[in-house]
Each structure stands twice: as C-alpha cells, then as structure tokens.
Specification:
The structure is a homodimer of 322-residue chains. With 322 residues, chain A is mainly α. Chain A has 2 domains: 122 residues, Orthogonal Bundle (Farnesyl Diphosphate Synthase); 194 residues, Orthogonal Bundle (Farnesyl Diphosphate Synthase), CATH 1.10.600. Chain A has 16 helices and 2 strands. A two-stranded antiparallel sheet of chain A has the order 1-2. The interface between A and B is large, with 37 and 37 residues.
Chain lengths: 322, 322
C-alpha cells in the first residue's frame, strides 16, 4: 500500500499547514494540539481516493478532504467532553488539558474551519457539497445522542444499534467518498454508489472495531482491550450474546452483567461469546455489510471506473489483525 | 413602528414552522424549547430590512434571516453552559433543564440548522454568503473566548474591550445586514457599507446595554439590574470609571471593588460612576459609534437607496428607556 503511505504523508503535511497560530491562544492552541495527535486519516484519504477515480488531482480534492478531517476532530473534541474521556491517542483530551469551556468553544471553531475548507469551492459544486455535509453533520449528532440514550436503556435492539453506528460513524465515510464524486461533477447514481459503499464499509468497520475491542491484540489495537465489556456497552456483540444466551437458556450472560469490572470479566466474556456463538454471528453481520460495500464498488467498476484503490483500501482496513 | 411589528410576527411565525419535531427527542426537544423562549428577533429583522432596501421580498431573504437567528441561539445555548447561567429570558437554560451534554450536542445541531438555511440559496450567491457567515462565526467564538479570558485579567484596556464586543456581538449584526445586500447581488461597496453600519450600531448597542445594566429601569430592562457591577465585570463603563478614579485620585473605586455583592454596591456604583464622569464618557463613546453607523446609512442614502427603515430601527433600538 505504497500509494496510501504517500497520500497519508501528503495529508499530514497539509493538515500541519492549517494556520492555528492565531489569537486568542486559548481558542486555537487546543486545535493545533489536537490535530497533531495524529490518527489514521482514513476519512480524508477516502475523499482523495474517491477523487482519484475520476482523475481529480489531490490538490483539487484536498479541501474537501480537510473538511471531513476537521469535522471528525471537532466531533471527537465534543464527544470526549460528553464521554468524560481523559485520554485520546495516548494524550490528554482537550477538556482535560484545558477545561470543558475551552473544549466546547474550540470545538465550535473547528466546526467552522471545516466549513471554511468547503467554502474554497466557490462554484456550482458548492450547493451539493454543503447539502451533503449538513445532512451528514446532523446525522452524526443524532448518532451521538442515540449512543448516549442507549446507556440508560435496557431494551436496545440490534437494528437500533446498527442505526446508531450508521449515524454516528458510517455516514461520514459515505460523505467523504461522495465528496470526490461531487467535485468531479458525477451524476447522482455514481455519487449514490460511492456514498452507499462508504456507509456499508463504515458499518462493517465499526462492527469489526467492536469485535477487536474484546478479541484484538492489545499491542496492535492501540486501545485498552475489553473497555466495552467493562462498561456493559450494548454493542452488536453484546446484543447477540444476550439474545443467544436467552435462546439457549445459558445463565452465564446474567453472571457476566453482575461481575465487577476487572480482567477476569474480560476473559469470561471472551470465552462465553465464543462458545455461545455470538462472535461468529457478529462476524456474519459484519461480513454482510462488507459484501454489500463490495457490491457497490463492483457496480462502479462495471461502469468502467478505476475503483481498484478503494478495493485495496477496504481490504487493508478490514484485514487488520482480527 | 407598525412595519416592525408586522415583520416580527412574520419572523415568529416562520421560526415556529421550523421542524424540530424529530428524533432523538433529547436532541431536538431542547431546540424547540429554546427557540420558543422568544427574544427581540432584532438580528433576523436586520436581514429582512436590508433586503427590503433592494426590493427583495421577505420570502426571499427569510432563510438568511433564519440562519442568523438560529446561529444566535446556538451561541446562546453554548454560552449559557460556559457562563453557568441558570436562567435565560425568565426560563431555565438548556443545560439546566436537561444537562450539559445535551446542551453541547443540541447546540451543535442548531449550528448545522443555521447552515442548512443558508444552503437553500443553491446558486451563485452561496459562496459569498458562506464566506461571510464562516468569518462571522469564527469571530463570535473569538469574542466569547476573549470575554472569558478577561475575567481573570486585571489589565484589560478600553480598546480591548471594544474589540471583544465587536467580535462577540457586533459582527453578527454586520453579517445580518450584509446578507440582504448579497442576496440582492449588490456590489462590494454597498455590501461593505451595510456591514460597517451593522458593526458600528452593534458596538453602540452593546455599550448602551452595559449602561442600562446599571442605570436601566428594572421593570423595562427585563434583566437583573447591576449584574455587571456585582461581578466586577470589566465593561467600558467600569474601565472608564477605573481610569477617571485614578486620574482624579478618587479612592472610592477601590472601595467599590472590595464591596460585597449586594444592593448597596449597585447604588454606590450608580452614584460614583455618575459623579466621576464615567457615565458621560461612556455615553460619548456610544454616541460616536452610533454617529459612525448613521454616516454609513447616509452614504447609502446618497446613492439613492431607501434606507429609511434602517434609520427608524436604529433610532428605535437606541432610544429604548435609557
């Protein structure tokens, strides 16, 4: 994936060039700090790759890519306040390093900076870009609210969970991909295929993330393993296990809920979810979304579009150390 | 001001038609609640009036007007969290009635709703609208950050204070007015005159607000009188009094700072600021910005534009029960 490495370096370089050396310091210093924490830059990469299908130079799609990345970081800064998360990518979150007020306000500014990147396309493409971006931004907020609502609910269904992750994380991938097509003045069918590809890939990716949270290699996963289990988070894996335990009359799921948040709880869940079939069932759902994403790509390929970089990126994203 | 009453009713009606009857309830109910709290609707009124100068029907300028009003309400919801304000317009603030997380997230959604109003102008005017709006939104955040920074600073100057209120409150009035000119495809000179008129009027209006905070009629002012004095807020009135006291060797200003926040502190400040000349000096500064605003209107009038509704609105705003 040499191509990706080169794009990542390009993205890092362009992100570092964004001018956050501005006053008041308490408003912009947190942004420079947070953007420098890194990340996979997967979302802006999707915009660049999507544009490249239509021979759009990366210098042309970069502002849309940066819009997506800045928006993503804005949502992380605000989510971290709401989730009371002390650490992000191994460093203190903005509200921890500064305070909540500064995190709210610098987040707000970052949101506007995302729109400023979009405003650089001051031509006939702007209305479509803005419409898609607005709709996506509202959906991401809806997803975050549902995620918070689910914490206190006991009757969350699998479909509700999928809808929540579709809104919270997947539509932004769809938006990132559709941006490339909008910038290249593609018709609605092409735009829609890329959008749907992104949404399905995003759902598959998030379900994989939930599985990795329990079964991932701690050293490779980069996050604490088992965090979801310790907090009884209602992921698809958890909901599948709950349903299967009820069907099989297996009381171990109730035992799990009562366990103190400690290492043996994680080990207990790993064995239980495997034996009860929850891991496999979840992998099947993940795969169905992945196949759906691939079908969208194949449709585009049949139209003669050069989508091979997106096939490669998908495989790269979904084969990471399961 | 019959014309204004009619416009206000029109605005109220259009605001009430915005669809906040959406899921999740915790995200949209706070918006319906907050928008229904009312307010003068002065900002969207400026957009409608500005458009009317160029014979733009209000049905054409309404979305830009709503964009301004929604943005204003977004900023109030987030500011109320930061200021820990329990009450707004006599009712509980969003973070008090719900919680801070819901206030952050529903504020974020309202911000996007503002952009969605703008996106309704899906034509050649959109780039200019978006650019002005983005710049304004960033400046409003800068102003709010400066306001918070000033709380812990002892060396705030009069110029810094004016710059803070220019950013925090006045540029939005300028933006509201320029929107009308952009929508009517006016040249840069006309747009700029309207923008500058709004900024100067906004500064005059805010300084008047600071004076009314101490000298206003409690029943007519609608807010607690003396709030700024009780918290030693560094308004222009306060900074003028500080400077004049130092020049005149009057130790009463230091006495004021040491007083407990109670009713006699407010009475003490009223007398002191009057006797020391701070009230008059502040009124002079206010008037200079008001005259500057009027000059911008006169320039537009000389170009043959029908700016009389803006003269009327300015007089109406600045003669309110001083």
């Amino acid at each position: 994936m040499e191509e990706l490495t080169e794009y990542t370096q390009y993205l890092e370089s362009r992100i570092s060039e964004i001018d956050f050396d501005r006053e008041p310091r308490n408003l912009f210093d947190p942004l420079r700090y947070f953007l420098a924490l890194g990340g996979k830059r997967m979302r802006p990469m999707l915009t660049i790759l999507s544009g490249s299908i239509f021979d759009l130079p990366r210098e042309e799609s970069i502002h849309a890519a940066l819009c997506i990345e800045l928006f993503h970081n804005f949502s992380l800064i605000h989510d971290d306040i709401m989730d009371e998360a002390p650490v992000r990518r191994g460093k203190a979150t903005v509200h921890t390093k500064w305070n909540s007020n500064i995190a709210i306000l610098s987040g707000d500014v970052l949101f506007v900076e995302a729109y400023q990147q979009l405003a650089k396309y001051a031509d006939a493409r702007l209305p479509l870009l803005l419409k898609r971006f607005n709709e996506t931004a509202i959906e991401v907020c809806q997803g975050q609210q549902l995620d918070m609502d689910f914490e206190s609910r006991k009757d969350v269904t699998e479909l509700e969970y999928i809808e929540m992750i579709r809104l919270k994380t997947s539509v932004l991938l769809g938006c990132a991909l559709e941006f490339g097509a909008i910038l290249a003045n593609q018709d609605e069918e092409t735009r829609s295929s890329l959008y749907q590809f992104g949404v399905s890939l995003g759902i598959a990716f998030q379900i994989q993330d939930d599985i990795l949270d329990l079964y991932g290699d701690p050293e490779l996963f980069g996050k604490q393993v088992g965090g979801d289990i310790l907090s009884n988070k209602k992921t698809l894996l958890f909901l599948k296990a709950k349903k299967l335990a009820a069907q099989q009359g297996d009381s171990r799921f109730d035992d799990l809920l009562k366990m103190e948040p400690a290492k043996d709880k994680i080990e207990f869940a790993k064995v239980l979810f495997e034996e009860i079939g929850a891991r496999n069932n979840t992998l099947e759902v993940m795969d169905s979304y992945y196949q759906s994403a691939m079908q969208n790509l194949k449709n585009l390929e049949e139209k003669g579009l050069k989508v091979s970089p997106l096939f490669k990126l998908s495989a790269y994203l979904m084969n990471r150390n399961v």
